[in-house]
Amino acid sequence: MDRLLGIDRRIIFIFVAAAITIPLIIRFELPVPATKDVKGIYDKINSLPDDSHILISFDYDPASKEELQPMAIALLHHCFRKNVKVIGMTLNPGGSGLADKAITEAGEEYNKKYKEDYVFLGYKTGVELVMINMGENIYSAFPNDFNGNPTADLPVLKGVQSLHDFDYVIDLASGSSIEAWIAFAKEKYKFDLGAGCTAVISPDMYPFLQSDQLNGLMSGLKGAAEYETLINRKSSAVAGMSPQSAVHVLVVLFILFGNTLYFLSGRKK
Amino acid sequence: MIKNREVSITTWILVAFCIINIFFLVTGKLGFDAKGLGIITAVAFTLAMYSFLYKDNPVFKIAENLFVGVAMGYWIIITWFNILKPDVFETLIVPFFNDTGNAPQYIVIIPTLLGIFMLLRFSTKLSWLSRWSFAFVVGLGAGITIPNFIHAFILKQLSFDLLITSNILDNINTFLILLGVVSVLIYFFFSMEHKGVIGGVSKIGVWYLMIAFGASFGFTVMARMSLLIGRIQFLVRDWLGLIQ
Amino acid sequence: MNKILLTFILSILVLHNTSTAFAVGGNKLVPPSDFQAFDTPNDDGRSISLRWPSSPSESTEVEYVVYVSIRKSGPFNTEVLRINSNTMYKEGSDSNFHYVEIKPELFFNKESVVTGGKPDYFFKLFMMSDIENVAIKNIASATPKGNWFNWKKLNNFIILIAFSTLVLLFIEHAKKNPNLYLRKISGLDAIDEALGRATEMGKPVLFVHGLNGMGSISTIAAVNILGKIAIRVAEYDTTLKVSNIDPIVLSVSQEVIKESYLEAGRPDAYVEDNVFMAASEQFPYVAAVSGIMLREKPAANFFMGYFYAESLILAETGAATGAIQIAATDSYTQLPFFITTCDYTLIGEELYAASAYLSREPLLLGSLRAQDIGKGIIIAVLVLGAVLATFGIDFISLILKAG
Amino acid sequence: MNFFKRTIPLIIAFVMGVLMAFQYYVPHEASQSLLKIVTRWGITIAGFAVFIGVYSLFHLHWNKIKRKLPGWGYSIFVFFGAGITVAFGLYNGGEFFWNDKQQGTMFDWMYFNVQVPAGATMFSILAFFMASAAYRTFRARTSEATILLVAAVIVMLGRVPVGTLLWESLPPIADWIMSVPNMAAKRGILIGVSIGAIATSLKIIFGIERAYLGGGD
Does B219 contact D159 at a Cβ distance shorter than 8 Å? Predict the structure, then answer.
């Protein structure tokens, strides 16, 4: 029995790789019903009239790309379909390239014009300082966009003076930026805030959902898959749900198996 | 002996990697351009990182150190183009030397100086000047934190839902939430011994904490698996082209 | 802003009219009996509040429109508001009053507004349906003024003052009386037990620092605990190895341990090389520390400070070598992994409490006590508030309403 | 000299802290302008922090190379990676760094084909270790750990599509765990941590907590 427990961990690694690769290649689809929290964001964007302004803060970097980039793309597709004006920004230097790519590619797909229908403001550091400065005056925080264009005469920002003027703000976060957005921006400048985050931090967000400080939450790849289902544009996140299911079952089996052996062997260390 | 085996494993993997890529390039599956070569580079880095799973090895270490360097380089350049250039260079320095139609904004001198002072932290003689900058930023942060936290994380988080309504299920949940918040707070209460009622409630607090940590545990497993799924999608789809 | 708002409103109007053009028939509109304008309280001096009582002829087909002018005589041709007549009721007025806040300066060019001081603004309210428009007779006027205190935030301000006083008081108190009571942290007993076992087995003890530098409270707390562990280790004559990732934490740890050995009367037993930089990057750190665990098989592992994703691999490797493991971290996302792989885990603030308990530093003790009182008040308020609210008394929720 | 090294920073922190805390309660335009200016300055100052990161990293690896510490050879790659990225960034596709940032340059190529894949892969390695830990070490040693593992298993299965297939009630139970016990505990933690953060901020403002000033007086 000890030998069974003491197998080389590399054998377990092979199991994991197989549990993910095989369902990806075979491709079987599982239903991904949307939860209430993801629907909160979807419904909010759906309710926005044409030419509303939506701010998306891409506060993640490549380390969380696989969870948050599909989410960002699904969200952008929904916004552009709804003819909403999209303003992007980031508080994470490593995220600027990913954000720029997502926003530009989605915009081009819907024949939207940069500077008129969407803009990427780029990166600023200082987290809560940036938020408060944007809350007072967005042109003060971002005098130029990512490509160096002065923001003061951007048509896409017409009618927006500060954070309060945005019809909706969404934070896509891999760190503690959602808390900062709540404390220093949403509560201070009063606007609707939704969030998408890595699954690691999403359990910590539930108090804010209950207190309505967040009106919706997408957690991890599953959240992205739900959003893809809602906008009917199934892509990499939905495709990822079958391997996700398979590997979860594998991990649960490992836990059960390991604990059974542990109890059978008299709980010795 | 083991070392020899590992050297030969590495060599074989490298050879296989080269053959696959040459095959893709020759058949035109990957273009001999920035995109095709980019995918090959990205795959090389992905696989180099995964080699850590076999054991810590030079390939992993080289890839990791390169990654750290590139990430730092990216941070420097992005900070230049997004912060220092628009906020300092173009508002203060360019108008000072060239007539751009805008007068230099001399007020920017203050934060610029404080920013430069901050870098003096590494000097032995002038490091005390860096304390002025840190004091400014840290004091500012502390000042704005207090009232905003009281508002958003304390007052807003205190909910006084009715414990008795017509919906029994709601009542139970409301009670469980109240019990949970209170018992967890009591668990982190250090001025009283955990005995008697306090001890009992703090024990309940531990259960709540454990359920919450279980939830975080499940979600963290989910997160890491999602990252792996994303990478395998990249390898199987973008590189090998096995799926669409 | 103006234009967009207008086109937006127009578009709604057009849509709206096509469907309801024939809905209203012949009913005369009864305008509201009153219309008031006043400076919005608790604001920065840009907005004016308008208030008027509801009218019986309100419906989805009827709109309220407000025009503004900077002269009492008009012309009133700048539209500042157009709403459905059965929306925007004043909160808590049971739909008896309408209430809106308007920032009039947004509707005027800077030049047209009289310079020097804030001008008076004049407002005219109309009730409009497809068939008729009625104006409310009186023209309301007000001047926006900036206010120097936001009374809605009074509760917040009182909390700030009260809590500051508490913190300062208790730190002073703890300076005079360092024996302030603090409950025993159960994980601390386990430390002695683990050190005893290491001594019996003649194997080293490994202390693993988290990833954060000296600026983080968790690291400071970890160093405090390390100092106490080092005293015991010196007394027991065991080997203590300390792995670091930050050079400053490294030198601080070396100092602290040297002092502890001196305090235990065994300065000769201190070996500087046992406190070392394991690596400078996250994953190499994992690899290096895991390597030490596998090679030297320490009898006890301590993980203290702030950890990130590496916690899992470290604790797993340690568990596999059969060491007693004790973790202490305030990194909540990593706690689940420590709890399932370690024998004892100090959760969150228990780390600070443990460091205060061991070091008896007034700064830590005092602020911990002040925080406890804060928590105590919140617990009392939560329980009392819920009970009172159940009986229909919402006094507590009113005074604690976030403004 | 002590006045400049010690007193002035404490005064700055105190004045800034008190000013900004009180500013929150003052809605007047003057107070808003102050907030705007001060946060604007803060952003600019924070921008310089990149150089602190640069210095720490390079200093560390430079020391490794200089002292020929074990594994010093790998440190060269840090300089190499940073060097070419910065060079491409400054070259800016032929426009050089004093012009606006160009799209699709070698700098972007480096980002998308080195930093993105390596960064994204880094933490996915943990997926493997998590599975192996599940097999070898996640044990229900105590009643606490048992509760934790049971909750984890329910959530893990309930949050993926396969959960419904295994048992229909699994997803609702998982949702209940998330929004009732998990929510309550996380709210308790949040309130406790916020009180701690407020206390730390107060100690900084009153000059009791000085760790941020760095060592040496």
Answer: yes
In the DSSP assignment, the letter for residue B154 is I
Question: Which residues of chain B neighbour D120 with C-beta distances below 8 Å?
Answer: 46, 227, 230-231
Give the whole-angstrom CA distance, residue D101 versus residue C352: 46
Only one residue has tokens 């960002």, namely A72
Q: Is A51 on the interface with C (CB under 8 A)?
A: yes
How many other C-beta atoms are found inside a 10 Å radius of the C-beta of residue C235?
Answer: 17
Angle at B207 (CA atoms; ends B205, B213), nearest 5 degrees: 105
Which residues of chain B does D121 touch, with a Cβ-Cβ cutoff of 8 Å?
45-46, 49-50, 231
Cis peptide before D171 (omega within 30 of 0): no
Q: Which of D2, D96, D105, D115 to mutate to test the interface with B (most CBs of B within 10 A)?
A: D115
Q: How far is D141 from chain A (nearest CA, A)?
A: 8
* Cβ–Cβ contact B137 with C under 8 A: no
More confident residue, C27 or B197: B197
Phi first, then psi: give them for residue A243, nearest 5 degrees: -60, -35
pLDDT tens, position by position, A107-143? 999 999 999 999 999 999 989 999 999 999 999 999 9
Domains within chain C, CATH numbers bracketed: 2-12+29-148 (2.60.40.10), 152-176+365-399 (no CATH), 186-359 (3.40.50)
Distance from CA of D28 to the nearest CA of B (A): 17
Whether B124 and D211 have beta carbons less than 8 Å apart is answered as: no
- CA A85 to the chain's CA centroid: 19
The predicted pLDDT at position D158 comes to 93
Q: What is the pLDDT of residues C10-56, one digit of tens each?
A: 444 444 444 443 444 456 788 888 888 888 888 888 888 988 888 88
Which residue from A186, A112, A177 is spatially nearest to A120, judged by alpha carbons?
A: A112
Does the beta-carbon distance from A159 to C4 stay under 8 Å? yes
Record: contact A159-C5, CB cut-off 8 A: yes
pLDDT confidence tier of residue A27, bands split at 50, 70 and 90: confident
Phi, psi of D197 (to 5 degrees): -65, -40
Give the whole-angstrom CA distance, residue A79 versus residue A70.
14
Residues from chain B that touch A219, judged by Cβ atoms under 8 A, are 219
B186: amino acid identity, one letter: I
Distance between CA atoms of residues A220 and A211, nearest Å:
21
Q: What ipTM, to 2 d.p.? A: 0.92
Question: Taking the domain A36-237, which CATH number applies?
Answer: 3.40.50.10160
How far does A49 lie from chain D, in Å, by closest CA? 31
Cα A209 to Cα A223: distance, rounded to the nearest angstrom:
15
A150 and D CB contact within 8 Å? no
Q: What three-state secondary structure class fits C377?
A: helix
CB-based contact B184 D185, cutoff 8 Å:
yes
How is chain D split into domains, by residue range? 1-55, 138-217
Using a CB–CB cutoff of 8 Å, tell me whether C87 touches chain A: no
Sign of dihedral through CA atoms B17, B18, B20, B21? positive
Contact B233 A240 (CB under 8 A): yes
Neighbouring chains of A at 3+ CB pairs under 8 Å are B, C, D
Percent of chain D whose predicted confidence (pLDDT) is above 70: 98
CA dist C9 → A45, B236, C6, C17 (Å): 19, 51, 5, 12
CA distance A268 to D190: 37
Q: How far apart are CA A172 and CA C103, in angstroms?
A: 32
In chain C, what residues touch D200 (CB-CB under 8 Å)?
A: 217, 367
Residues of B in contact with D148 (CB under 8 A): 210-211, 213-214, 217
Return the number of other C-beta atoms located less than 10 Å from residue C123's C-beta. Answer: 24
C379 touches chain B (CB under 8 A): yes
Q: How many residues does chain C have?
A: 403
Domain boundaries defined on chain A:
2-23+245-264, 36-237
